Amino acid sequence: MNRPTDYQIIEYDGHPLFVVVPYEEFQRIRPLLERENARHTIPQEVVERHVLEEIPLVRAWREHLGLTQSRLASLAGMKQSSIARIERGESRPRRATLEKLARAMGLTPEQLLIEEAEDSSA
What we know:
By secondary structure, the protein is mainly alpha-helical. The chain folds into 2 domains: 1-34, no CATH class; 38-120, lambda repressor-like DNA-binding domains (434 Repressor (Amino-terminal Domain)), CATH 1.10.260.40. The protein has helices at residues 23-34, 44-51, 57-64, 69-76, 80-88, 95-105, 114-120, and strands at 8-12, 15-20.
């Protein structure tokens, strides 16, 4: 094998059973997987960028995780231009899109939905 591979999904009886990821990718997301409360928390850096710098939450998370728009698009099965539109605020993603983005970044959808909570309090 001469080039890096993306995730490989191993299925059994038509259902996903395991996911094989490149070691470098595993090392990048491992801290999120190991933290007991990581499933529902948002790091201070992400919150500050979102609130103080008014950076869209998807972008703040993407940059915090060290992903490019192209890589996130590939992981989420989307186009890079769609990610760019979401990050510029030109497109408000549906819940299903946020769920795809969350999965691609190793997050829960709730970690990307802070904007909905802000909107409902207005």
